[in-house]
């Protein structure tokens, strides 16, 4: 059992330690984990391998503020285990909390005893996943948000997938979703030519969003159309539902009857255009990305509606 | 019939006109309407009263860019009448379009003939409603978005309304909604103590938003709770659904069984707190309003879910 607080002084003297309790001036007290030094002390019984990678990508050094550790205490009093959610009341958190001791336990956990008797035990993998280093955070963010994007022009060959494979095969569904996330559009082939299959597809991955046009709606030529999409005329490039406070990120279109003539769908990558505009006409880009525009949608479909929202054209 | 383009020169000479066609240098060509001068020319047959208020609140002067007028042409070729929506394709709009003539017609409309033969007729009230003056825009924005807000502290007497009145009486429903919009919270009294009445209330004014917790959900003590709200313990102040990309603006809670002890609801006005924080601790305000925080929600309710979103705490 290597008691951190014991070797802080000697660690600072040697400029090396497995775990540092840093109480710098002007910075909040924090727990500091140095991987390079971990490795040098690899022979130490309580220097766990799982800790030795902590923060390596950012110079081999990870720092965890003590206040953050206390706020994230994983004990059953502070965290509801079944929800993995915070139970500790914000008002009960002492942001100036002080530490009695920090230890590496025999089973490779970091144990912190706080002044006032409460103690917290952190699993090394748990800490590692929450490493504050820029590189580690980038990795976690990429895992959480899949931020890889392809921006495309007219040379794009629209990626395709098979409707029935996506419905039946989990791997095909995942591949479809990852492509949709990365490229923004996927053409699914083979859906039967009757209504109802948009709903099947949505239920495959989540649930439909109800709007004032209903759960789904028919885009077809209608008398007294309350939307230009409900006519046979050509539409300008557009995003859908700009009059919603939160326009949808993804929309499903199911072509049931193809027009004998016309009826082409033209697609454009708004992100690509925005980047081009930023480069070629910064003033226009600034206007479109800073001025909020009024959007109105009014009429009657699933219900009567008169919607009004304010958005920048480029967000 | 007073042909605008004819009297521009004399108008500029006299520094007065009913309608000015302004073709300034360095600014786009535009239609300018001066109300003060309108009034001075009140004896003029074609100086309609409805135009004489145009832009009065902003110094009696309204300016409409010709490009904007062409873009907003209300004729059946450019606007789908049944939807009151633009049909003119963006690609077909000539942003450098020139004007052949501008006229006030006998029935008090502004007629613009564009080079290339197309013509537009604008109703004076339609123009007035779209006046570009700052004051006129403020008025329209207030009508559209009801931006009046009350920020409150502990002295608030929570406004109340009656559940059945709101359901049955349109004026009571409107009063409830306006108060909800202005104050952020309204206590409805008299709802029957059984499930289902949240849905009735929602259907009164719109429709429920489906989330991974279902259309509605029971907040009650549950074994293996997947949310701290599903326990009997005290919750910190919170907003709901921060792990949604678009957290809800309004939430309905229906108290069906009141606890014998405890069970208090504490409310706080986040906008009020944010303003206080901005004044008292600008650095903290800056952090909370600029740093995006990861929010996670995971579990199973209406369906299995693992949600991840990134928001600033103060938006």
Automatic annotation (TrEMBL), chains A, B:
Q: Give the cofactors, semicolon-separated.
A: L-ascorbate; Fe(2+)
Concerning Pfam families, the annotation shows:
GBBH-like_N, TauD
Keyword check for ATP-binding: no
Taxonomically, the superkingdom here is: Eukaryota
The record's InterPro entries line, in alphabetical order, gives: AlphaKG_dependent_hydroxylases, GBBH-like_N, GBBH-like_N_sf, TauD-like_sf, TauD/TfdA-like
Q: Gene Ontology cellular component?
A: mitochondrion
User: Has UniProt tagged this entry with the keyword Acetylation?
Assistant: no
Single Gene Ontology BP annotation: carnitine biosynthetic process
Q: In which pathway does it act?
A: Amine and polyamine biosynthesis; carnitine biosynthesis
| Span list, region Disordered | 23-56
Domain TauD/TfdA-like, residue spans? 160-299
- What are the entry keywords? Carnitine biosynthesis, Dioxygenase, Iron, Metal-binding, Oxidoreductase
Gene3D superfamilies per the record?
A: 3.30.2020.30, Clavaminate synthase-like
Which residues does the UniProt record annotate as the domain Gamma-butyrobetaine hydroxylase-like N-terminal? 57-127
Q: Which family does it belong to?
A: Belongs to the gamma-BBH/TMLD family.
Q: What is this protein called?
A: Uncharacterized protein
């Amino acid at each position: 059992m290597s008691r951190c607080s014991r070797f802080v002084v000697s660690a600072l003297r040697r400029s090396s330690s497995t775990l540092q309790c840093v109480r710098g001036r002007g910075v909040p007290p924090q727990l500091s984990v140095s991987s390079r030094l971990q490795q040098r002390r690899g022979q130490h019984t309580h220097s766990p391998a799982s800790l030795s990678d902590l923060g390596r990508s950012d110079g081999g050094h990870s720092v965890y503020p003590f206040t953050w550790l206390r706020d994230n205490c994983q004990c059953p009093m502070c965290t509801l285990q079944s929800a993995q959610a915070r139970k500790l009341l914000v008002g009960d958190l002492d942001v100036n909390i002080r530490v009695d001791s920090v230890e590496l336990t025999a089973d490779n956990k970091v144990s912190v005893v706080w002044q006032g008797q409460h103690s917290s035990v952190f699993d090394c993998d748990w800490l590692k996943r929450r490493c504050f280093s820029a590189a580690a955070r980038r990795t976690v963010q990429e895992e959480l948000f899949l931020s890889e994007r392809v921006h495309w022009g007219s040379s794009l060959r629209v990626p395709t997938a098979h409707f029935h494979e996506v419905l039946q095969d989990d791997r095909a569904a995942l591949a479809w979703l990852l492509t949709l996330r990365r490229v923004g559009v996927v053409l699914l082939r083979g859906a039967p030519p009757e209504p109802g299959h948009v709903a099947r597809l949505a239920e495959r991955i989540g649930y439909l969003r109800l709007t004032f046009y209903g759960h789904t709606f028919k885009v077809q030529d209608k008398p007294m159309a309350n939307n230009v999409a409900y006519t046979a005329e050509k539409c300008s490039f557009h995003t859908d539902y700009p009059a919603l406070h939160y326009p949808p990120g993804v929309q499903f279109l199911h072509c049931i009857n193809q027009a004998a003539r016309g009826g082409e769908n033209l697609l454009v990558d708004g992100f690509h255009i925005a980047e081009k505009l930023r480069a070629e006409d910064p003033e226009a880009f600034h206007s479109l990305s800073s001025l909020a525009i009024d959007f109105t949608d009014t009429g009657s479909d699933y219900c009567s509606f008169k919607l009004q929202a304010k958005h920048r054209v480029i967000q």
